[in-house]
Amino acid sequence: MIELLLADRCTGCDICVQVCPTNVFDAVAGSRPVIARQSDCQTCFLCELYCPADALYVAPDCDGPVRVDEAAIVASGWLGQYRRDSGWGQTRGDPDHANESWRMDEVFERARAAATE
Ligand code: SF4
Ligand code: SF4
After folding, report:
1. Sorting pLDDT into bands at 50, 70 and 90, what band is 114?
2. Less crowded by CB within 10 Å, the N or C end of the chain?
3. Domain that holds residue 82
4. Closest Cα to residue 56, out of 20, 93, 106, 92?
5. What is the pLDDT of residues 44-79, one digit of tens each?
6. Is 56 a member of any domain?
């Protein structure tokens, strides 16, 4: 379940707001997004994959929230680990492997619409 959005790393790009299939985050005008509906998190790690700043921490327990120590998580090196281990983003900047994740936009739009019905 999503546990942390680290304010000092977050750039406010709102990518996590766009990609979360269950609409967990709320965008905040002129600021960073907030975790608005933690209990709706399905522990899919999609937001961790997409976050360009490794500013999110999703704990592997999908049954409920767990208490986490932000400083310990930072020190552990776990931020971005899921992204790194999956190979996500390894070809950033390589024109032979252009990021075509935009093709998922329609899927995300449908999921967001269903989540807000
Ligand atoms: S994707 Fe990462 S950097 Fe962008 S707003 Fe979300 S937490 Fe912040
Ligand atoms: S882990 Fe998945 S469901 Fe949970 S906040 Fe991230 S993108 Fe949303």
Report:
1. confident
2. C
3. 2-89
4. 20
5. 999 999 999 999 999 999 999 999 999 999 999 999
6. yes
Q: At residue 98, does pLDDT exceed 90? A: no
pTM: 0.82
CATH number at residue 64: 3.30.70.20
Angle at CA of residue 77, ends 37 and 47, nearest 5°: 30
Instruction: Confirm whether 106 is domain-assigned.
Output: no
CB of residue 51 inside a 6 A radius of ligand 1: yes
The answer to the question of residue 113 being in a domain is no
Nearest atom in ligand 1 to the alpha carbon of residue 25 is 6
- Provide the domain count of the chain: 1
User: Which of 14, 23, 48, when mutated, tests ligand 1's pocket best, judged by the most ligand atoms within 8 Å of its CB?
Assistant: 14
